[in-house]
Amino acid sequence: xxxxxxxxxxxxxxxxxxxxxxxxxxxxxxxxxxxxxxxxxxxxxxxxxxxxxxxxxxxxxxxxxxxxxxxxxxxxxxxxxxxxxxxxxxxxxxxxxxxxxxxxxxxxxxxxxxxxxxxxxxxxxxxxxxxxxxxxxxxxxxxxxxxxxxxxxxxxxxxxxxxxxxxxxxx
Length: 171
Hints:
This protein is an alpha/beta fold. It has 2 domains: 1-92, no CATH class; 94-171, no CATH class. It contains 10 helices and 4 strands. The longest helix has 14 residues, at 2-15. It is elongated, with a radius of gyration of 20 Å. The termini are far apart.
């Protein structure tokens, strides 16, 4: 598990200078303590939000930070680091986040992955989908590509419908 976490965090740090990690179930403290990524400073959020914000934005504006909080993410109104979090990345350890990470998709696709969990549980379908994905895909395009994988067709609506009608005619 630690290798998967290191890999996923490393990929997040390729895109973001600050990464937040909320350990909602409070079961990954050991993994946080063993994480070692070059040039990344690990800091625990423990009622020190204002000082952290000053340090991240003013004292060390070039330093990469992994900010860990044991427990759930605070409500937006109570989250002193919300602006920093929205501008940077968040590391999640639930199954949906793992699927999205495997496919190089952002958290904006979490609702699609959650709604279609059965699709993502099949390794072959995930591999086929990954070959079709592009960095600028929208949620609608992702769903169309998922349909194409299931139908065994090109990721175009006319092709998906044609393939499905052909299969229906053969039955």
